[in-house]
Amino acid sequence: MKVYSHDFNDGEKMPERQVFNGMGYQGDNLSPHLAWDDVPEGTKSFVVTCYDPDAPTGSGWWHWGVANIPSTVTVLPQGAGSGQADLPEEAIQTRTDFGQSGYGGAAPPKGETHRYIFTVHALDVEKIDVDEGSSGALLGFNVHFHSLGSASITVTYS
């Protein structure tokens, strides 16, 4: 499986368009374009996540979760997680660690460099049992039991 973006490449610095607007930052808080191909046989849906393993919480920080993306969809346009482009009708954005559903951009503590891992997961079921109030941990738990494969892009921000 492969994932790519028109907004950044693996290993690059996250553009200001994808940085949070708040907590001392003035980014655009715009979810990135993501596309994927070479998906595993038997894929029935996708989940997209963005996770910061470097957050000083003891458990990282969930920046984005989108579940129940139909297997016929292989692109999320820029802004889909920010209300500026359409998500598939069946898709559900789960709660981030900012406390609400939808994309929440990079916002590391001043002076720190963090990694932001955008992952597309291929699942063997059409839907998983999550809603807009579900945490990133619950989303990940459900993904774990239905994963056929995944691909990631990691960017940094400081």
From TrEMBL:
InterPro entries associated with the record: PEBP, PEBP-like_sf, YbhB_YbcL/LppC-like
Stated name of the protein: Kinase inhibitor
Source organism of this protein record: Paramixta manurensis
